[in-house]
């Protein structure tokens, strides 16, 4: 009997340590992955970050891994491959529609990471925006239009304004207008203006001046004079004359994806309620650290023309708002989990003895981890401006200034402007001295 | 005690083995009849494409433009495929039903098609090459191309109404045949497809 008991204790010990080591290695590698992609990105080593991302998730099962791959392929100029993997992410998100019963149960027993990550709503909508930009950069405006319609259906499904994305509305307007569909563009511009106003508590963004101009121009050309008068008054514009782009000139739309989205961190407390080891519980919650430095950008041309870019989407603020909205339920789940884990620890100790109870406590504390997942390769902000330029090849510079107003980097680009048409230039700037190739660290 | 622990251990092993076994499984392939209808996601699929092409073909061959043209000119009309714009919510491949239509019309023996502008430039390059390299008897001269009498143009539109968990998807395909000589529309075909898609808010 003694022998049998000893054997059973060893069995419990063995399986607990196997489980513990398995779960620990899994957690460490998970944490390391995000950190490395993130740290490579923060250092501007895009090529390295891409190489790490490409090495992950060969089964293409993980939404986040596909989103990161897609974004990094896009930043390195591989638009077609980017959309191919974004499409994988999109399909997977669709498969993960609805609440999973088994994953919810897992979240109550182990931790929140057992739930599949289908992307937060702002991430799901931005996925369509980046796919649209990829199509634009391949010269396929019709397909970009398809993406915008899909984003529209998604936002429609979610109901009214709070989940609406003003930049995605604005981008759809610009795509419709570039395709010559002014009536559709007008509807999208109107929606964008409304959403900038209704989501102000999230993003704190004023209506961009370019959007005001676009809205007034399309209202004038579509003959909506009453609305034009009303909006002129609302925008405080006294004199307004709709100016068509003259022949021999075209419009350049510059979209700059600047900086990096924030990364969630874990804050945890380990509490002991009654002094016994088995009365130890841990609660771990995600939080965002202080926002990183913001950069602003100015577009300049050789002909002494210059224009500041305006923030049209504050992804940093969207990420923080999403977490703030979720934190009550995350906290509730964490507390419920602590109660359940405490009960099992007590029960195991009661039935199997002190050692088993101790091991169960160690496992429970080790597996209590905050869910830190989010799309980390998104930019901090999306900035935009528009400029009328002469037809043909033009060289433009996007100058990046830090918070102190110092010029830290310049992106030089050659753009091809077509008469009376809109051309898009969508760039990414993550950090000074960005390198798109794989480089040795330091 | 020993027995219970042993049983636990065995069941863990069994589950692990099962998981490994499932992961190592080969994909299951089953041949399907190309004419069968199988809706998976509710999106545009092969069955929709087939339905559109079949009904459009019937319509275009039964209308009077064909008999009128043949009676007037004494020859069968030549058609070129122009742009079919995708204005829908999905990345729809329009080439499948256009190719279906083209094949049916050519095989009916009543309509012929000329190559699209992209294909033409490739063929012209080949003709240029023949000019230099092919023998006199087999060489094809330039300037003998057949000009199209009609252009087939169109669009796919969708209207989607959605609330959480439910969608109504409405597709409308419009195809027009336009007379190249005077821009007159001689045939307008239209196909509509409506689907309702429900998704459960709960999964396993």
Describe the structure in your own words.
The complex is a heterodimer of chains A (442) and B (204). Chain A has 442 residues and is α+β, with helices and mostly antiparallel strands. In chain A, helix 1 runs parallel beside helix 14 (354-367) and helix 3 packs antiparallel against helix 4. Mean pLDDT of chain A is 88; it is low at 16-33. Helix content of chain A is 53%, strand content 18%. In chain A, strands 7-8-2-11 form a 4-stranded mixed sheet. The N and C termini of chain A lie far apart (62 Å). Chain B has 204 residues and is an alpha/beta fold. Chain B has a domain at 43-113 and 147-198: Rossmann fold (3-Layer(aba) Sandwich). Chain B contains 5 helices and 6 strands, in the order αααβαβαββββ. A 5-stranded mixed sheet of chain B has the order 2-1-3-4-5, with helices on one face. In chain B, helix 2 runs parallel beside helix 4. Chain B is globular, with a radius of gyration of 27 Å.
Helix content of chain B: 25-40%
Computed CA radius of gyration of chain B, to the nearest angstrom: 27 Å
Largest interface, per-chain counts? A-B, 27 and 27 residues
**Low-confidence sequence ranges of chain A:** 16-33
**In percent terms, what proportion of residues of chain B is strand?**
25-35%
User: Helix tally of chain B?
Assistant: 5
Rg of chain A (C-alpha, Å) = 26 Å
Q: How many DSSP helices of chain A?
A: 14
Report the CATH C-level class of the domain at 43-113 and 147-198 in chain B: Alpha Beta
Strand order of the largest sheet of chain B: 2-1-3-4-5
Quaternary class: heterodimer
Topology (elements, then pairings):
The complex is a heterodimer of chains A (442) and B (204).
Chain A: H1 2-42, H2 46-55, H3 63-75, H4 79-95, E1 99-100, H5 101-109, H6 121-137, H7 141-158, H8 166-178, H9 182-198, H10 200-203, H11 209-221, H12 225-235, E2 249-258, E3 265-272, E4 280-287, E5 296-301, E6 306-308, E7 310-314, H13 315-352, H14 354-367, E8 381-390, E9 392-401, E10 407-417, E11 422-429
Parallel strand pairs in A: 2-11
Antiparallel strand pairs in A: 2-8, 3-4, 5-6, 5-9, 7-8, 9-10
Chain B: H1 2-24, H2 46-62, H3 64-73, E1 78-87, H4 95-107, E2 112-113, H5 117-133, E3 150-163, E4 166-179, E5 185-198, E6 202-203
Parallel strand pairs in B: 1-2, 1-3
Antiparallel strand pairs in B: 3-4, 4-5
């Amino acid at each position: 009997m003694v022998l049998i008991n000893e054997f059973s204790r060893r069995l419990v010990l063995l399986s607990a340590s196997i489980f513990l080591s398995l779960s620990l290695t899994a957690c460490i590698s998970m944490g390391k992955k995000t950190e490395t992609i993130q740290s490579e990105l923060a250092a501007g080593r895009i090529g390295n970050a891409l190489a790490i991302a490409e090495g992950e998730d060969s089964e293409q099962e993980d939404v986040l891994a596909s989103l990161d791959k897609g974004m990094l392929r896009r930043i390195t100029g591989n638009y077609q491959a980017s959309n191919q993997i974004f499409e994988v992410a999109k399909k997977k998100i669709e498969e993960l529609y609805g609440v999973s019963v088994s994953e919810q149960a897992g979240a109550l027993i182990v931790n929140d990471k057992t739930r599949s990550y289908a992307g937060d709503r702002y991430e799901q909508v931005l996925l369509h925006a980046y796919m649209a930009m990829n199509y634009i950069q391949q010269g396929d405006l019709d397909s970009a239009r398809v993406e915008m319609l899909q984003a529209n259906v998604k936002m429609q499904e979610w109901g009214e304004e709070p989940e609406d994305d003003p930049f995605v509305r604005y981008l759809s307007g610009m795509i419709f207008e570039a395709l010559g569909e002014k009536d559709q563009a007008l509807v999208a511009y109107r929606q964008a203006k409304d959403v900038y106003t209704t989501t102000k508590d999230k993003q704190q963004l004023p209506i961009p001046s370019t959007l005001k101009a676009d809205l007034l121009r399309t209202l004038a050309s579509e003959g909506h004079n009453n609305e034009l008068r009303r909006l002129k008054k609302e925008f405080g514009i006294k004199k307004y004359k709709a100016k068509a782009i003259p022949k021999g000139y075209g419009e350049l739309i510059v979209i700059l994806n600047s900086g990096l989205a924030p990364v969630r961190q874990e804050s945890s407390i380990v509490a002991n309620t009654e002094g016994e080891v088995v009365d130890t519980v841990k609660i771990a919650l995600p939080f965002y650290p202080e926002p990183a430095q913001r950069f602003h950008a100015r577009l300049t041309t050789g002909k002494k023309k210059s224009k500041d870019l305006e923030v049209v989407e504050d992804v940093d603020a969207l990420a923080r708002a999403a977490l703030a909205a979720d934190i009550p339920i995350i906290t509730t789940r964490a507390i419920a989990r602590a109660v359940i884990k405490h009960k099992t620890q007590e029960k195991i100790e009661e039935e199997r003895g002190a050692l088993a109870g101790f091991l169960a406590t160690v496992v429970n504390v080790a597996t209590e981890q905050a869910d830190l997942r989010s799309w980390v390769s998104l930019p901090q902000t999306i900035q935009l401006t528009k400029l009328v330029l002469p037809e043909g090849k033009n060289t433009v510079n996007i100058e990046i200034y830090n918070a102190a107003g110092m010029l830290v980097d310049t992106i030089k680009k050659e753009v091809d402007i077509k008469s009376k048409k809109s051309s898009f230039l969508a760039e990414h700037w993550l950090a000074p001295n960005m390198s798109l190739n794989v480089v040795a660290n330091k | 005690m020993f027995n219970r622990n042993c049983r636990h251990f065995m069941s863990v092993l069994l589950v692990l083995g099962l998981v490994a076994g499932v992961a190592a499984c080969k994909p299951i392939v089953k041949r399907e009849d190309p004419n069968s209808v199988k809706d998976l996601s509710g999106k545009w699929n092969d069955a929709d494409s087939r339905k559109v092409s079949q009904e459009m073909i019937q319509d275009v061959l039964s209308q009077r433009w064909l008999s009128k043209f043949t009676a007037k000119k004494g020859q069968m009309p030549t058609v070129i495929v122009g742009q079919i714009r995708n204005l829908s919510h999905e990345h729809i491949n329009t080439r499948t039903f256009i190719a279906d239509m083209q094949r049916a019309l050519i095989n009916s023996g009543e309509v012929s098609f000329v190559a699209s502008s992209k294909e033409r430039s490739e063929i012209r390059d080949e003709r240029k090459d023949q000019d230099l390299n092919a023998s006199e008897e087999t060489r094809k001269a330039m300037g003998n191309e057949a000009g199209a009498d009609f252009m087939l143009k169109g669009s796919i539109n969708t209207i989607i109404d959605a609330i959480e968990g439910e969608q109504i998807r409405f597709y409308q395909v419009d195809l027009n045949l336009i007379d190249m000589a005077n821009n007159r529309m001689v045939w307008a075909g239209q196909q509509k497809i409506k689907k309702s898609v429900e998704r459960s808010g709960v999964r396993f």
